[in-house]
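Researcher: Please translate sequence to structure tokens.
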Amino acid sequence: MAPASLRIMRPLNCAMLGLAVLIGEFVSRPPMIPPFQTIFGFLTAFFICAYSMIVNDVYDVEVDRVNQPTRPIPSGKISVAGATRLSILLLVVGMTFSVLSLSPLAVAIAAGYAFLSWLYNYWAKKSGLPGNLIVASSLAIPFVYGGVVSGGSIFSSLLLAMAFTSFFCGVGREVVKGIADVEGDAKRGIGSIARTRGARGAAAAGAVFFILAVLTSWLPLFLRLANVIYILGVWIPDAVFILLAVSILRNSSPENSHRVKSRALIGMLAGLIVFIGGGL
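Model: Translation complete:
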């Protein structure tokens, strides 16, 4: 089993965030991508994500003692103080790699992402929709960061479509997820839409965000800047999210919300593949 200090970082999640930065670099179509900038971009995302994972566990320690007792902190394999020190170290390392990119805007984005990670755990997690928006922003920011750190265009239709589509998919998924989590959220005092507006209200809101994701994915088509791969492929993830929107509207039960939440990941993966193809 991996050491507690590694487990609490959730390295696979961090690597996925780093991959999103690399994809953002590719899709932004820079004149060229200096190798060191590519490495620095990946490592910035990796270490700041690791920081955010630990911060989450530090703030959730009392809940995890009941729901996730085998996690590093509640199991006693690492102390709260030790985890806090590790998170600060990882944040410093991540911000250092951002500074090495020599882009003030990249540094500002990295610092903003780190702040949002802390804000989410400190306050926004219990606020409902604001917390959903912050979680969803973590899906969009890496793509934009990749465009900035590589010197590409962050205003390219493909990059913006990728960022906004990922954002709206993420919000929709978080809102729908709240239907399945309503009992646990009640114990933690989380004001999710499902708790404040009911399952039907959360289903309607989730469906709206899924449809917004579909509409933003059409941005390159409206601007006539999509290649053949994108034109032919975008209908696959769009069909997935339209079906998910219809499904959650028809059946807003916790069981179906769990299915929709899981299948949304399939649609997001399909969309990511399409965006990469669109950048060729």
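Researcher: Any highlights?
Model: The chain has 14 helices and no strands.
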